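Hello forum,

I keep getting stuck at the same step: I have a sequence, I want structure tokens, and every attempt I make locally crashes halfway through. Rather than fight my setup again tonight, could one of you with a working pipeline run this one for me? It's a single chain of 342 residues.
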Amino acid sequence: MELKDFYYDLPEELIAQKPLKNREESRLLVLDKNTGEIQHRVFKDIINYLKEEDCLVLNDTKVIPARLYGFKKDTGAKIEIVLLNEVADSQWEVLVRPGKRVQKGCRIIFGDNELTCEALDILEGGNRLIRFDYEGIFLNILDRIGIMPLPPYIKVKLEDKERYQTVYAKNPGSAAAPTAGLHFTGNLLEEIRNKGIKTAYTTLNIGLGTFRPVKVNNIEEHKMHSEYYEIGQESCDIINKAKENGGRIISVGTTASRVLETMADANGKVSPYKGWTDIFIYPGYKFKVVDALITNFHLPESTLLMLVSALAGRENILKAYNQAILQRYRFFSFGDAMLIKS
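Reply #2:
Ran it on my machine without issues. Output:
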């Protein structure tokens, strides 16, 4: 398939610049992946589409204030870095701007000299491997001097950084939020559990590779970025039991989908695991675990749009997106939601 097969024209004013006041009041487009039927609802209505045997799988990663502004120790030149992956204790793969100013051995100072780093290596693709030096707790320092790394299409300052976290965010490490989960409130999750629907959690630390454009015409030539994930025994048991009992596995977001499809065996059974995934899901892929998906609306020609097209069919997805545009849905990270149901 070609990249242009996943293009659609989106009016810029439909790109949501800030979250709604009430999370669960987002709109919800419901797409039946088998029939292509479309319904328009409000997100809190999601409970009406869930059955007692079903299992929701959520990504409990927590976004860290991963954008840091500093200056070179020797020249005072301004430097911006974004934390991508922690590869060892105090060592991170980072995105650097402007990259040409940061060569091996370069030292950068952040805040009031409370955090410094040294560039250890230049990685493939231009990212840097750096080692931080500091006293105290790294995440506490980040909370003081770091900034939430909002996607480049959001131009408005975020007033409350907790709105770029899910209410169940637990494990720090992401440079971006698993945005499908932003629509859930604690009360809605409690209602869902009270209905007998199971919830299971995985962690996938989202890197900024999520927002990198596909640059090849033949999408099969695209190489996905790697992201760290883990899933424990308890969650695996919940998922496997739901599957055995005839329930649907409903992934909350594309990141949870990628975890499930990475570590499932040929029969769709999942087992505890920690590791890295670079799985690329596009039309033609046969899902082993995921039956349904809660997701946001994704950028044209993005790998995320390709993933949802693999689940629901490209024509169904583009038809649904066209309807969402006509109905003036809000798009992307702070936008409205879609349920792809089976």
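The longest strand covers residues 78-88. If your local run keeps crashing, start a new thread with the error log.
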